[in-house]
């Protein structure tokens, strides 16, 4: 038997409970894992609270991240004793996820835990940090360099923003953090932000073209914030968009694209191919100071996950929530 958070649905609505399950209940897959840690992400908050129809199949164990040890495998890449990391692939939405003590998954979805990180540190990074690395990779591959000027990070106190700041600073960029929690200036500057802006400066409708400021942007907000970021990006600059914390809309014009040659780089972390995943984790292992993870991560037990998930919907989160599924 093992403990798991289970989301179910009936005519009366959605229920979320912690249950004891038999291993025979696990879904199909070619790798079985003893989970050590999972995380809580914004998407997990949506799933657990039912605020958005994230879950496509019931009953569902949420949790889009996990790290753990392989106990059984019929996949050529993995054997018992391997430590593996899972991010995305629809886990927690269409396939049982990481908020449980055991998981059964497809081996093609897994990557090895980098030797630079302990298991709990990998979950302090989680999908949010891995997404941040994908964004930084996209900007660097595009050709954005520190010499070109400031880089903006929106949603800066969130998981993506926190890791993006640390990675960009390690690469020598001048980083400006945009946040609704300006009281967290000390936290953000500790991660590497050179300056902090109130998100109110960019959260309302602005002009189609504004004063050029950003060489690049990592955006987790969407909506007016993304539209204003595009309008403020320098000629030939790029914006890596990976989230919708403010909204899924994009109330912008084509002006930044056709008059300044700005590029909008879409970042998908859920179905990203393994080559991009490995590259992102290599960057994290190389450029992310493990000591920064102490500031980013807050550890909770599995039994606290349901109540903590509600904080994502009320904007109370800072950094990353690491779930010790055995606590």
SSE topology sketch:
Layout: E1 2-10, E2 13-21, E3 31-40, H1 42-49, E4 65-73, E5 83-87, E6 102-105, E7 110-112, H2 119-142, E8 151-153, H3 159-170, E9 175-179, H4 185-191, E10 195-198, E11 214-219, H5 223-232, E12 233-241, H6 255-259, E13 263-266, H7 274-287, H8 292-296, E14 297-301, H9 305-313, E15 320-324
Parallel strand pairs: 8-9, 8-11, 9-10, 11-12, 12-13, 14-15
Antiparallel strand pairs: 1-2, 3-4, 3-6, 3-15, 4-5, 5-7
Helix pairs in contact: 1-9, 2-3, 2-7
Describe the structure.
With 327 residues, this protein is an alpha/beta fold. It folds into 2 domains: 2-116 and 292-324, Alpha-Beta Complex (Quinone Oxidoreductase, Chain A, domain 1), CATH 3.90.180.10; 126-266, 3-Layer(aba) Sandwich (Rossmann fold). It is 29% helix and 28% strand. The chain has helices at 42-49, 119-142, 159-170, 185-191, 223-232, 255-259, 274-287, 292-296, 305-313; strands at 2-10, 13-21, 31-40, 65-73, 83-87, 102-105, 110-112, 151-153, 175-179, 195-198, 214-219, 233-241, 263-266, 297-301, 320-324. Strands 3, 4, 5, 6, 7, 14 and 15 form a 7-stranded mixed sheet that branches. Strand 8, helix 3 (159-170) and strand 9 form a beta-alpha-beta unit. It is globular. The relative contact order is 0.16. The model has no long low-confidence stretch (mean pLDDT 95).
Features:
single chain; 327 residues; alpha/beta; Quinone Oxidoreductase, Chain A, domain 1; Rossmann fold; seven-stranded mixed sheet; six-stranded parallel sheet
């Amino acid at each position: 038997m093992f403990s798991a958070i289970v989301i179910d649905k009936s005519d009366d609505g959605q229920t979320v409970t912690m249950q004891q399950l038999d291993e025979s209940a696990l879904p199909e897959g070619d790798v079985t894992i003893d989970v050590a840690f999972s995380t809580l992400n914004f998407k997990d908050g949506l799933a657990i609270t039912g605020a958005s129809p994230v879950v496509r199949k019931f009953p569902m164990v949420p949790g889009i991240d996990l790290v753990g040890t392989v106990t059984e495998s019929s996949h050529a890449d993995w054997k018992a004793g391997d430590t593996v990391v899972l991010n995305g692939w629809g886990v927690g939405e269409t396939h049982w996820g990481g908020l449980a003590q055991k998981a059964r998954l497809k081996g093609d979805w897994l990557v090895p835990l980098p030797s630079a990180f302990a298991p709990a540190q990998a979950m302090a990074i989680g999908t949010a940090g891995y997404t941040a690395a994908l964004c930084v990779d996209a900007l660097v591959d595009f050709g954005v360099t520190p010499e070109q000027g400031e880089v903006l990070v929106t949603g800066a106190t969130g998981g993506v923003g926190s890791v993006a700041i640390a990675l960009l600073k390690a690469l020598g960029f001048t980083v400006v953090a945009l946040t609704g929690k300006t009281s967290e200036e000390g936290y953000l500057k500790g991660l590497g932000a050179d300056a902090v802006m109130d998100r109110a400066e960019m959260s309302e409708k602005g002009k189609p073209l504004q004063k050029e400021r950003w060489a690049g942007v990592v955006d987790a907000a969407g909506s007016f914030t993304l539209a204003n970021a595009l309008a403020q990006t320098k000629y030939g600059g790029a914006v890596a968009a990976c989230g919708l914390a403010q909204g899924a809309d994009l109330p912008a014009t084509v002006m930044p694209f056709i008059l300044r040659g700005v590029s909008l780089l879409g970042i998908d972390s859920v179905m990203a191919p393994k080559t991009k995943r490995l590259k992102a984790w290599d960057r994290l292992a190389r450029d992310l100071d493990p000591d920064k993870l102490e500031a980013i991560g807050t550890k909770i037990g599995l039994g606290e996950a349901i109540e903590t998930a509600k904080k994502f919907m009320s904007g109370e989160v800072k950094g990353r929530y690491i779930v010790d599924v055995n606590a």
